[in-house]
Write a structure and sequence with these properties.
The complex is a heterodimer.
Chain A: H1 9-19, H2 24-31, H3 35-42, H4 52-61, H5 69-82, H6 86-89, E1 98-103, H7 111-122
Chain B: H1 9-23, H2 33-40, E1 44-48, H3 51-55, E2 57-62, E3 67-71, H4 72-77, H5 79-103, H6 108-117, H7 120-138, H8 141-151, E4 160-161, H9 169-176, H10 180-189, E5 193-194, H11 197-204
Parallel strand pairs in B: 1-3, 4-5
Antiparallel strand pairs in B: 2-3
The chains are: A mainly alpha, B mainly alpha.
Chain lengths: 126, 208
């Protein structure tokens, strides 16, 4: 499989998963991963592990064969991402800004709570 | 482009059918909504822990309509509810995207004010329309009607009162991958079920 051009670990990870035809749910169910963690990993909100065994596990799940070009890219991106601080590189274009959202009782949210929500949606520590 | 106040039950159903024709032409049920969302539409699915507990929100779509957020507990533990939530967010994409692009906030600084100023009535329309879209996508009439006819074959009428529902109703819902509460409202919309306001208050809480 040909790798798509990518700039970061999360994007690379997600592109591989999607190109294999796996939804987040099917990927996590099949390989026993936590959807919340994989979701954060794919958004670069959680730095990837650089533990060789764990990285190899991800690589296997993503059908990245050892010592191929994607294997090297995958590992390089993981090491780069380890020192990556998401908040510092986020711009208005990459932030998750809500257009619509459904609250439990269809009630509008006040401005302060809304600001808190935006912080929450874009905070790497959440 | 429709304004939120222009959408009707009929036009929302038409949009839902158009959507299904494009993304689920074989009318598979349960509708593979997560596959459509992630693999066909390439929408990024973002799972947030505690979104519902902290903000009372189970689903959210971003302003470029290429990412949908969902509460982690709902996604992991309540699959049927998650399916409905995701379909609702897709409803916003289909029904409200153009309107939002034209009338939504023009800049980042305008963003908070726009939401604060959005008319509560319009907000309410928007959310109800997305919910209606979801119910038509996940239980399209072309599949729901024959299934309902089979399900109620032994009854004297196709149109039932809530207390006339057979005990195996949850199995009927499971065929569509819908939670019973969502299916009840879907059936009511098509006139197959009558639910009194008292029963609704009891089942769904006030204000449905």
């Amino acid at each position: 499989m040909k790798s798509q051009p990518t700039t970061n670990f999360g994007e690379f990870f997600r592109n591989r998963r999607i190109s294999l035809g796996m939804t987040l749910r099917s990927f996590c169910e099949r390989f026993g991963y936590d959807p919340g963690n994989i979701s954060r990993l794919e958004r670069n909100m959680l730095p990837p592990t650089v533990d060789d065994e764990k990285l190899a596990g991800y690589a296997k799940a993503l059908q990245i064969s050892k010592d191929t070009e994607p294997w090297v890219t995958f590992h390089d991106l993981a090491y780069i991402a380890k020192g990556f601080i998401p908040k510092d590189v986020q711009t208005e274009n990459t932030m998750f800004l809500p257009a619509f959202f459904r609250t439990m009782r269809n009630k509008k949210m006040d401005k302060n709570k809304f600001e808190e929500l935006i912080d929450f949606l874009n905070d790497s520590n959440e | 482009m429709n304004k939120p106040e222009d959408w009707t039950l009929r036009t929302i159903e038409q949009e839902a059918n158009k959507f299904l024709k494009q993304y689920n032409p074989g009318l598979t049920i349960p509708v593979p909504i997560e596959e459509i969302l992630e693999l066909r539409l390439n929408i990024r699915l973002v799972v947030y822990p505690d979104l519902e507990n902290r903000f009372g929100i189970n689903g959210i779509i971003n302003n470029s309509f290429d990412a949908i957020g969902i509460d982690e507990h709902v996604y992991v533990q309540q699959k049927e509810r998650a399916r409905f939530t995701l379909a609702e967010e897709l409803g916003h994409m289909v029904l409200h995207r153009e309107w939002y692009i034209k009338h939504g906030p023009r800049s980042f600084t305008d963003f908070l004010d726009w939401h604060a100023k959005l008319d509560a009535k319009i907000y309410d329309y928007i959310e109800r329309q997305a919910k209606t879209f979801a119910s038509f996508v996940l239980a399209p009439s072309s599949t729901l009607i024959p299934e309902w006819e089979r399900f109620t074959a032994g009854k004297s009428s196709r149109s039932l009162q809530l207390d006339q529902l057979p005990d195996n109703f949850p199995d009927f819902c499971k065929k569509f991958g819908l939670a019973p509460q969502s299916m009840l409202l879907r059936l009511e919309k098509s006139g197959f079920l009558t639910i009194s306001q008292d029963q609704k208050d009891l089942l769904f809480g006030k204000r449905i």
